[in-house]
Write a structure and sequence with these properties.
Organism: Novosphingobium resinovorum
Largest sheet: 2 strands, antiparallel
Protein name: Conjugal transfer protein TraL
Keywords: Membrane, Plasmid, Transmembrane, Transmembrane helix
Number of domains: 2
Strand order of the largest sheet: 1-2
Structural class: mainly alpha
InterPro entries: T4SS_TraL
Pfam families: TraL (PF07178)
Number of helices: 3
Number of strands: 2
Length: 88
């Protein structure tokens, strides 16, 4: 069983100059923009260019937690985003 670990565990995986979550976001946005095209495609690219610098001011892991907050994903063992009280 071979598994590769990064040299420094505290550094996130980086593809080109993007973090792994940014890279997925960039590639999916460009893919959709090319398919849609026109003004909507350029609007998606402009939104991406505004989102990336804003996202870099946030702590690491911000996008998965944002998706959790919107109810798009769930974390195993954690309550949902609408729960106000949690008792273990």
């Amino acid at each position: 069983m071979d598994e590769r670990l990064p040299q420094y565990l505290h550094r996130p995986v980086q593809i080109l100059w993007f973090g792994s979550d940014e890279f997925v976001l960039v590639m999916s946005t460009i893919f959709v923009a090319v398919i849609v095209g026109g003004v909507i495609g350029w609007t998606l690219i402009a939104a991406l260019l505004l989102f990336i610098p804003w996202k870099r001011t946030k702590p690491r892991g911000f996008i998965p937690h944002l998706a959790w907050r919107w109810g798009l994903v769930s974390f195993r063992g954690y309550p949902g985003p609408t729960q106000r009280r949690f008792f273990e």
